Amino acid sequence: MFTLHRLQGHIQTIYLAEYADRLLLLDGCCRADVGPVCDFIRQQLKRPLTDLHLIVVTHMHPDHAGGAHKLARLSGALIAAADVPGQWYRGLDGFMMHLSDILLAKWVASRMKRPQRWLWYPRFLRPDLLLKDDEPLPCFPEWQAYHCQGHTDRDLALLHRPSGELYVADLLVRVRGRFIAPFPLFYPNRYRSSLLKVQTLAPSRVLLAHGGEYPLSEINLEEVLASAPTVPMTHWRSVKAKVRQALFGKDAA
Question: Where does the Metallo-beta-lactamase domain start and stop, copy by copy (predicted)?
Fold first, then answer.
């Protein structure tokens, strides 16, 4: 038996699975979430930080990887990530994208009327464990990791097989009552395959990092597929489109 706790993070929902002898953090949180997560474990659960055994990083964005290394240092937990070669933020482009993603997270926080916090985190992840597609989590075999790429090249979704609950991180977001594809979306073809994978897995509930949790029956995946971009939607494309629009008017967008 376990309890899945939902914590309000800086800009996202944090999911923490509590077992009698260990804890599992379903994502790496924001750098600003490290203190609140530690306080929750110590003060609310009345447990030592060393009970945190595993931290999964579903992808490298600030609200999913930002707290992973520090939480691992404080607790001794292992970090698990998708078995994908290389670093997401590699090279000069990666350095610039890392900066822009942190600024984007700060902008989201301001839109949510959150106080500004320190969000800087290492752009290179040093995972202890690499997860292949359809592989159970070490020490938590009832949880299955699935590669669900599209948002980035290393997105993970986590299925709790006994309950059928599926944490999809940023595979879907809910905005103004609609389920839509995330931004950025680097790999539209992979994204469509990932949505079809969710459809095949047929979870009982889908847990979002942004937007809550819902029975799969309430999510019209066909509508999301129909409205999803067919070309990459990235930071640089958005900037270029805005520049073209500013220079040449709406017809150039």
Answer: 11-210
